[in-house]
Amino acid sequence: MLSASEEPVNKKRKMSSSDPERRKTTMLPVDVTKLGTFGTRSQGSDLLDDLEITLDAKAYDAQHIIAAAVQLRISDVPVAFPTETVYGLGADATRSEAVKGIYSAKGRPSDNPLIVHFSSLGQLRKVLRPDYNESDTNDPIPAIYHPLIRRFWPGPLTIILPNPSDSPLAPEVTAGLSTFGARIPRHPLALALISLSGRPIAAPSANASTKPSPTAAEHVAHDLDEKIDMIIDGGPCDVGVESTVVDGLSSPPVVLRPGGVGIEELRKCEGWKDVRVGYEDAAEKSGTPRAPGMKYRHYSPKARVVLFEAGSRLPGGEEIVGHCQQNNRIGLIRTKTWDFNANDEMTPIRRAAAQAVAHTNGHHETSSGFAGMLQTLHKQHERLLTTSHKISTSAGDVAVLDIALGRNVADIARGVFAALRELDLAGVDAILVEGIDESDNSVAAAVMNRLRKAAEVHVGG
């Protein structure tokens, strides 16, 4: 629930996603600590508490959120905003023309369904049962999901729900399916925006279709400049990979996309001990995908990605040089074991801060509910470092641009998309990536799923 000390009064021309002119894309920085006050209200025995936000409507940061909410209500041009996973590209999920604006801006195939974001369970229940009121004792949210909501919401988990025959959702959201994906994000700016707009918000990742997902506002600007009007810059994302998508309507339940919540975590919840994997790491070939990220190749920079599966050795200098083309530049993303200190073929040149960001704290907060979210508002971040190496060959010198993401899986997840983008912007011919063991970590499985979809060449495994 959100209140403001004044109602936004500025009106804008209703803009269509088919407007031919180039747009001026404005980045609006918002500091959550200057937005207003956040609190929670118990809902008794309900699955989730309520978030209460009181905006300081005269504050500079709050005005940006108010402007974005107005845009969502009256415009068909989507708004980019941060979530805890990646930046989303949002539009009013109840208006067809607004949802079409997402597909247009991203260049997204129309048969790829969208996830709908909510700010409260009450808002979600109104979609599942348009005549729902708080006195109803029969919850329209299927009981199979109740343990997951109590444990993981708000957070990086999307649940597949039946779309009612009198659904207020635009048909473009579901891409012809009888179901839709829903989640409540764990980011105060996203929640404030959804609450203030008064609409459920359809929002895929805010990148050009097939490109690496954006984990900072600068990534959105790179892909969508002059295609959208507004980017809410709330700083870097905390999780770094998209939400886990689960289908509890099938028996047994299945994971349709790995993400910030792992299958072993799901199996600890009542009714989910037999949950199975229902996705492929490679793009699936036919049919309408049951969830985003299943059918099409994703997460790919312009440079060719070469994925070395976990346990593969660090490639030697000649092998690295073999991937060079016209630019004589190679990107390298190291994780757990690759160490250049033991490779005397490399000559370190310099270290420089990249545009990407990584979280300084390897701990992933798992407290449930909005109250748990409010404990994690103040995050510290540091920049990734790119080290430049040189390999001397008979044909000349080759530059190796190296980003070490560290050994912590959470840090790898937060930094991997940003690293792909940074090396691509540097004009490398190929990006060689050290894969990680996914056998005992939920986020690691999500990272490897994304890398396998991005890679043109796989080594080992």
UniProtKB/TrEMBL annotation:
PROSITE patterns: YRDC. GO terms for molecular function: ATP binding; double-stranded RNA binding; L-threonylcarbamoyladenylate synthase; tRNA binding. Residues 63-261 form the YrdC-like domain. Its EC number is 2.7.7.87. It catalyses: L-threonine + hydrogencarbonate + ATP = L-threonylcarbamoyladenylate + diphosphate + H2O. It comes from the Eukaryota. Pfam families: Sua5_C, Sua5_yciO_yrdC. GO terms for cellular component: cytoplasm. Its main location: cytoplasm. GO terms for biological process: regulation of translational fidelity; tRNA threonylcarbamoyladenosine modification. It is found in: Cytoplasm. Residues 1-27 are annotated as: Disordered. It is an enzyme of class 2 (transferase). Keywords: ATP-binding, Cytoplasm, Nucleotide-binding, Nucleotidyltransferase, Transferase, tRNA processing. InterPro entries: DHBP_synth_RibB-like_a/b_dom (IPR017945), Sua5-like_dom (IPR006070), Sua5/YwlC_C (IPR038385), Sua5_C (IPR005145), TC-AMP_synthase_SUA5 (IPR050156). The keyword Transcription does not apply. Required for the formation of a threonylcarbamoyl group on adenosine at position 37 (t(6)A37) in tRNAs that read codons beginning with adenine. Likely catalyzes the conversion of L-threonine, HCO(3)(-)/CO(2) and ATP to give threonylcarbamoyl-AMP (TC-AMP) as the acyladenylate intermediate, with the release of diphosphate. Required for normal translation, by ensuring translation fidelity at the level of codon recognition, appropriate translation initiation selection and maintenance of reading frame. Also involved in telomere replication. PANTHER family: SUA5, THREONYLCARBAMOYL-AMP SYNTHASE. NCBIfam families: L-threonylcarbamoyladenylate synthase. Belongs to the SUA5 family. This is Threonylcarbamoyl-AMP synthase. It comes from Cryoendolithus antarcticus.
